[in-house]
Design brief:
The chain is mainly alpha-helical. The chain contains 4 helices and no strands. This is Coiled-coil domain containing 169.
């Protein structure tokens, strides 16, 4: 065999076709693998964004709770101040009445209107609570009756 025949034998058609098929299969597997990896990467990015969103939700909840706690603390301070004003000087039990004596008539009427509204709201709330308790009692009676 001459050198030219040996070189030509290396490039046998059937052998080249087999190598080509093998290379195409390898290429297809790599493309499928790349596609799977891209899909996995997309899913992980979506999960990352959803976790970021949850973190923001918890941060928002935390900040809202801090703000609410601050408001409640201010309300507690105001109630304590009002309580101290109402208690006043233990020796002077009529101090709160005297503070109304010094008020002008218009201010007293506004205060009376405000107190009347507060009373109506409290009575309404009391009735709502009473109805709720009665309904809860009926539900409990029904549960006991069913048992």
């Amino acid at each position: 065999m001459s050198a030219v025949d040996a070189d030509f034998h290396k490039y046998d058609l059937s052998r080249l076709q087999a190598e080509l098929r093998q290379e195409k299969e390898m290429k297809d597997m790599l493309e499928e693998s790349v596609s799977d990896l891209r899909g996995t990467m997309r899913e992980l990015q979506e999960r990352l964004h959803s976790v970021d969103g949850e973190g923001n939700e918890w941060k928002t909840r935390y900040e809202t709770q801090i703000e609410l706690n601050g408001q409640l603390q201010r309300q507690i301070s105001m109630v304590h101040d009002k309580l101290e004003d109402l208690r006043g000087n233990p020796m002077d039990r009529l101090a709160s009445v005297r503070s109304y004596e010094d008020m002008p008539s218009d201010a007293l009427q506004q205060r009376l209107k405000l107190l009347t509204n507060e009373k109506a709201e409290l009575q309404s709330h009391l009735m709502d609570c009473r109805v709720g308790i009665e309904e809860e009692g009926k539900v409990r009676e029904g549960v006991w009756f069913c048992l």
